[in-house]
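Handover notes (outgoing to incoming on-call)

Open items:
1. 3-dehydroquinate dehydratase: sequence verified, structure written out, both below. Nothing else pending on this one.
2. Nothing else urgent.
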Amino acid sequence: MHVLVLQGPNLNRLGKRDPRFYGTHPLTEVTSQIDTRAGELGVKVDHVQANCEGRLIDWLQEHQDDADAIICNPAGLTNYGLSLRDALSDTGLDLAIVHLSNPLGREPWRREDVFAEIADLYLAGAGWHGYVMALDGLHVRAADRT
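3-dehydroquinate dehydratase structure tokens:
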């Protein structure tokens, strides 16, 4: 199994940016936790983080043909990233959307998530653990099909 992990705008600031919502672990530690779990499952994982929607789409389109599933935290694109949403949907791959915090429990403008309706798995509010949970869930979904 091969999983792509896309991290949206501002996630490069994890560990420094508002830790009460996003935690104290930097993105390098989050990536390491994902990689550790992927190794335990025998899953290959490729990562990208970008502050630009177009960069995420370009990377996705370059890598999607060799992948089986996607984990995406759209971050700052959550409310309006329709181009990324369409690109993710167009892959036809299993998709887990992860949010470190719970957008429904925050400011009203954060509550609309244009990615929610295309997600096979949706995890919010579990911090960095949400990524590992998403990886486990995608792995189970793939195993159930075989």
